[in-house]
DNA sequence: GCGAGTTATGCAATCGTTTGCAAAGACGAT
DNA sequence: ATCGTCTTTGCAAACGATTGCATAACTCGC
């Protein structure tokens, strides 16, 4: 068994010194050696099936060609496409992406960061940033190039790739206003995250721009971006404003929570209350009802982040650019005009929904499923 | 700025030789040095904030404490929970998981494997195995410990963690039979994958066990595990057997494809045709209708795989164990008894579905969404 | 045809650990 | 007291590359 060929073996085979082999194999130093010798070495390397040992090289050069990627939770469907985007450009550039989940816990983020640092990663992609994040200081102390993706920080010059959150939310409220809604509420995301804060601000601004007074723009913030927190926030929102005809949620999972709370109250979406989400997570078109939501270019987010990082690694002096991607609204089945007072056609349907509402709520299985009709 | 303390600095601080420091810091060799000295060294290490450099250590020991994880596609919602399970136990054991996507392309799998090998990973977990997979030979040639997860190979002694695919499918067909179905078809997965083959075989066996003759058990295999392929297979299946009242799909994405094809034909699920999936992917309960499916313990799959791998790394002589996990059926809204001949109540509804079928199919928006009613 | 300048290659140190081997010291048995 | 055995520590050679410096070879102008 021929073990694995090293630079030494190649050197012997080509009749040159190992250092020459190294120079040939490194694009940056290849011009230092004669074309003839270079060819001989390259041939020998190929013949022996030589592959460089990145750990040995890394020891000498202090570069690992590995990038640490910190994300909140891989199981949240927004992130896989982002990660794939990152991975794709990094791999093409000869880097390896190493991803770790933090579950939104700063302590886990910190631990993962230290592991990355120990492994001497060449840079970081952070999808976990809080608006004011202690981790960033540590990253800077470590002297590691980093870029933020999706979420950004309040102040501090770190390159970032984000969505136009305010613009996206404006799309959503304008859509609802165009449908005839005025009583529109907002289930906001965690306010310690830039996305939560920016979307909330965007909602407020868009409402104002539509001529709706601030008191007509109720907000309930969720503790985290998940279904349960969304349901809880929707509950608070509807308790305070029972006559809302539409909710814009800061995120698709929160929107799903709204679905649940509406079902619990015997309200139908979109007939009684319209809901719009944010992110257009995979399978959002499969929900019941299919979710109207603000689409963000998931994969592109990752791609751009990786590009920015590569750029930062090459020229470490470069100024911190921020790339802002434009979202777009995708209208599906969870939004409709506000319910009319019962009139000639459609009255029967409206009545049917009406009747079921004040009694005990239907068994809380999956939201609004046609299931109960057939069992 | 204090750079980073090395073993050398610790040695100087503690007044001992670097090799002694190394011995103290390695649990396996700590007993070689006096307790007093060990304490002094440990103190110095802590004081200087020493952290070992795994790349330097790896160079010497030929162990990277990194594990390569090969999965088909992170964006397929079955995998994130599995990956998280793997990552969790690996991290606890001091390893780093590095994951790569193959998109089911052997060439990409091969390329990723070579990158892993170059990085000197200590082991592999493979979620990409074909029934007869050339990659395995390469893995063995590399001498890398490996374990298979979810999918397994035809022949060859590699530890694996799989589901009881046949048993799971039996759960599904028995459920349908109990509901009164007899005309049950199977949308099978790719037959080059163990899951595709095992579930198909399981379907055939369960049908036979229910006393349904082989000719009454039609199968159409999908080219890949995705929605489009599922729709295509469902189409072939229903073209051949238009009177099917139920379909068991080899996978949730294929089941979603069935939803689409049924909608295209103006058939309603579950009223006209029941559908059951496999995997219970995240959000399967949110689909329209909520999907009855065979639940597999995603995370546990990953956890067990990682454990098996660790075991294989410790004692490389150990025999290749196979862990088989039990799935369970979760009944939701996509299954119901077969449609009755029109009788007193429910007749109107049945008629409505019936009527829409032969004409041109409804616009293919999201499957079965109530949307069109309101726009 | 000789010295200066240029280029291509070799030499050896280095990156931060681990580990086989040797040496020194401690201890007990004779 | 001497010798052998054990324990504890130091020494130095790896591991597989990269790279500053030295040196040999070659070019070119005069």
Largest interface: A-B, 56 and 56 residues
> CATH fold name of the largest domain in chain A, please?
Rossmann fold
How many structural domains in the coordinates of chain A? 3
Please state the structural category of chain A. Answer: alpha/beta
Shape of chain A: elongated
Radius of gyration of chain A over all CA atoms, rounded: 27 Å
CATH architecture of the largest domain in chain A: 3-Layer(aba) Sandwich
Strand order of the largest sheet of chain A: 2-1-3-4-5-11
What are the secondary-structure elements of chain A, in order, as H or E? HHHHEHEHEHEEHEHEHEHEEHEEH
Mind describing the biggest β-sheet of chain A? Answer: 6 strands, parallel
| Beginning-to-end CA distance, first to last residue of chain A | 66 Å
| Average pLDDT taken over every residue of chain A | 89
Which CATH class of the largest domain in chain A? Answer: Alpha Beta
Strand content of chain A: 5-15%
Q: What is the CATH H-level superfamily of the largest domain in chain A?
A: Response regulator
- What is the helix fraction of residues of chain A, given as a range? 40-55%
Low-confidence stretches of chain A: 341-375
């Amino acid at each position: 068994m021929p073990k694995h060929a090293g630079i030494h073996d190649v050197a012997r085979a080509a009749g040159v010194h190992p250092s020459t082999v190294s120079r040939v194999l490194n694009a940056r130093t290849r011009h230092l050696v004669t074309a003839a010798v270079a060819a001989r070495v390259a041939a020998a390397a190929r013949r022996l099936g030589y592959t460089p040992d990145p750990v040995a090289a890394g020891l000498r050069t202090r570069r690992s060609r590995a990038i640490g990627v910190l994300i909140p939770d891989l199981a949240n469907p927004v992130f896989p496409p982002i990660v794939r985007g990152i991975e794709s450009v990094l791999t093409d550039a000869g880097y390896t992406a190493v991803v770790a989940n933090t579950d939104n816990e700063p302590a886990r983020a910190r631990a993962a960061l230290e592991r990355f640092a120990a492994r001497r990663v060449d840079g970081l992609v952070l999808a976990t940033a809080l608006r004011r994040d202690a981790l960033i200081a540590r990253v800077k102390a470590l002297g590691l190039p980093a870029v933020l993706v999706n979420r950004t920080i309040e102040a501090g010059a770190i390159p970032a790739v984000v969505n136009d959150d305010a613009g996206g939310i404006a799309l959503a409220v304008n859509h609802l206003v165009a449908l005839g809604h005025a009583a529109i509420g907002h289930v906001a995301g965690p306010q310690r995250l830039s996305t939560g804060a920016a979307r909330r601000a965007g909602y407020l601004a868009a409402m104002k721009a539509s001529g709706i007074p601030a008191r007509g723009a109720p907000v309930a913030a969720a503790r985290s971006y998940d279904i349960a927190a969304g349901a809880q926030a929707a509950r608070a929102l509807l308790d305070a404003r029972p006559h809302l005809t539409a909710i814009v949620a800061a995120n698709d999972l929160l929107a799903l929570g709204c679905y649940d709370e509406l079902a619990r109250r015997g309200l139908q979406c979109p007939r009684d209350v319209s809901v719009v989400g944010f992110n257009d997570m995979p399978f959002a078109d499969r929900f019941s009802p299919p979710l109207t939501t603000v689409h963000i270019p998931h994969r592109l987010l990752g791609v751009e982040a990786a590009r920015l990082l590569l750029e930062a690694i090459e020229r470490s002096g470069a100024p911190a650019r921020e790339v802002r991607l434009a979202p777009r609204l995708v209208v599906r089945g969870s939004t409709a005009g506000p319910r009319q007072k019962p009139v000639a056609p459609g009255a029967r349907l409206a009545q049917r929904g009406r009747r079921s509402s004040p009694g005990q709520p239907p068994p809380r299985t999956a939201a609004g499923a046609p299931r109960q009709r057939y069992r």
